[in-house]
């Protein structure tokens, strides 16, 4: 009967060994059956043996000892069962018999296709560049200084580049620290760049919707809904790249975080419109080029709409004279003398 | 010979000056001696702490003990009878409580009844006086004691719907509600406000005569305070009907060219108009023109009304901005109106509610917003805000603002409609139908 050893180093690189001759010696020295290049592993660390059809493991004079399924062992001989995990230094060794069941095959998901696209170096840096160009465009649109905007535009664009790099770096480091696998730095750069591009395009669409519909509420709902989806996608993508979380759990975490964030922002915004505001709030969006699409009314139709405004529930409707006005004394109008 | 003439000239100068000066002070002394007893200090007392929280003056005008003062002196006691009460103090230290009998919120007048009538009262005269007539204002400035201030009548002020007497003399806080007497001892006006530097304003006494007549028509024992809101709403409605009616009844509004269109100019003498440009560091050069009344109708603490304002802002890009950039800055301007609606605070009015639309007018497409808010105590009264931005005119922006505070639904709509209709194309030509390409734009 064969015994399979799955060796996973601290970088999550996995190797499989298969043995039918025992004992199997494990250590850093080159005369071992399994050579583990881990500085925390002793030259002759462990020995796996078979006794009467059962497998045992024994420490062969290691410095740091070992653990089975998280339980530290030292010196004594211990029984092994298929599926057990040995930890020596920073290296994990899983012990399997050939008949050990494996997990079900995962269906190939669409996410993998997008994540394939963003692993291509050319795509990564193209999207990064486009994101920076759009940031430059945004800065150019909004920043004005009479004696040239060059410095301000460069600063803004550099800041955007910094944010992308920082975001990608933070996820890479987090991924490496928590799950001990590849950093996927480039993929993170591409992902966040793509999200920046989409959000900029969406901003234009939202502005034109606000402009043409004159409806702050509608465009606000669209903005919040869209940004919520975009944030969810970004989180989902980042989790995919940085963790080995299950598909369903990733969706749940991404959805929960993005919805929670957007819902609280939306709630805050809605509640603040309920508060007293001395200034009028109206659709102030003005856009060029597509003004011919604006549905125009006649002044008369506009005034009809205005008169309907008085009848809305926002205002107290005065249909009958006030109760106070029907009191004993009628309100006697003033006789204003005309002065010249 | 020369020194002699000099001394003679000096003597002549002193002689011409001295008698006049003596006459003024004698006059003031005589008037105060004769009529000072009819003037009282009015104190607003906080019921909880029993401390005064506002001071004014007042004067007795009937044998029965009716005291005239300013509405703004008694406003807090009128709106919060459970919190504030009114007392009077005579120049001899006699005190008693006051009850509010009637008010005229438009002209800032109030009639209050004394607990025990005084022995002296003033007779109401006229404010139709020649310019330069000497008037003597009596009151208790800053709680310093009763004071008589000489000054001159300088006609009526013409920068608001409410016309007050322009009085050249020092009226100070605390003198509000005190009388301004002519040499004959008759009341010509009621101290109401100061613009500083010896510029004061008096309410013409005719409004007090009207208020007295109004009060006499009311049944005795009428609880005015309980029905104050109804009376105030009625007065506000009548006043805005009069003011807005005056604007609308003018069939020929002055029409002036401004930017790409013709707009209403000074349409009433109550409006003062001026214009300026803002060409600082902003991306757009802004040319603007404003017309407004100086009305600041006091309703109660922190709540004013009655002003009408319209302004036009014409924006041209400073540099060769692209259309996209121009519109970004234009939108920022449109999103932050210059008009200030802090004339009311939370609890006084509802939030603004707006109707937004595109209209085709005067040869241009406009984004038009019509916003109103309701007065909570006076539900027939609204503040109105009309705000229109020209679009599709190339790299040119034009914003029209019309604000009218304290107007009825009917007047808000009528004024807004008339105002829009008075915005006309620069060249008199028929409006092209909306489905045609825009005109008037420049690329």
Task: Tally the beta strands of chain A.
Answer: 12
Total strands of chain B: 24
The oligomeric status of these chains comes to heterodimer
Largest sheet of chain B: 7 strands, antiparallel
Total of DSSP H or I helical runs spanning 4+ residues of chain B: 6
Largest interface: A-B, 60 and 85 residues
Main attributes of the structure:
heterodimer; A: 340 residues; alpha+beta; six-stranded antiparallel beta sheet; five-stranded mixed beta sheet; 12 strands; 15% strand; elongated; B: 443 residues; Thrombin, subunit H; 2 domains; seven-stranded antiparallel beta sheet; six-stranded antiparallel beta barrel; 24 strands; 23% helix
Structural write-up:
The complex is a heterodimer of chains A (340) and B (443). In chain A, the strands form two sheets. A six-stranded antiparallel beta sheet of chain A has the order 2-1-11-10-7-8, with no helix packed on it. Chain A is α+β, with helices and mostly antiparallel strands and 340 residues long. Chain A is 46% helix and 15% strand. The longest helix of chain A has 30 residues, at 150-179. By secondary structure, chain B is an alpha+beta fold. Chain B has two domains: 23-222, Thrombin, subunit H; 234-436, no CATH class. In chain B, helix 4 (228-249) runs parallel beside helix 6 (409-421). The longest helix of chain B has 34 residues, at 2-35. Mean pLDDT of chain B is 88; it is low at 10-22 and 430-443. Chains A and B meet through helix 2, strand 12 and helix 7 of A and helix 3, helix 4, helix 5, strand 20 and strand 21 of B.
SSE diagram, text form:
The complex is a heterodimer of chains A (340) and B (443).
Chain A: E1 3-8, E2 14-19, E3 24-27, E4 34-35, E5 46-51, E6 54-59, E7 66-68, E8 71-73, E9 77-80, E10 85-88, E11 91-96, H1 110-117, H2 121-142, H3 150-179, H4 185-213, H5 216-242, H6 247-274, E12 296-297, H7 299-309
Helix pairs in contact in A: 2-3, 2-4, 3-4, 4-5, 5-6
Chain B: H1 2-35, E1 39-46, E2 52-60, E3 66-69, H2 71-79, E4 84-89, E5 95-104, E6 109-114, E7 134-139, E8 147-156, E9 165-168, E10 179-181, E11 187-196, E12 199-204, H3 205-217, H4 228-249, E13 255-258, E14 261-264, E15 272-278, E16 284-292, E17 297-300, E18 303-305, E19 308-317, H5 323-335, E20 353-361, E21 364-374, E22 382-391, E23 397-407, H6 409-421, E24 424-425
Antiparallel strand pairs in B: 1-2, 1-4, 2-3, 3-6, 4-5, 5-6, 7-8, 7-10, 8-9, 9-12, 10-11, 11-12, 13-14, 14-24, 15-16, 16-19, 17-18, 19-23, 20-21, 21-22, 22-23
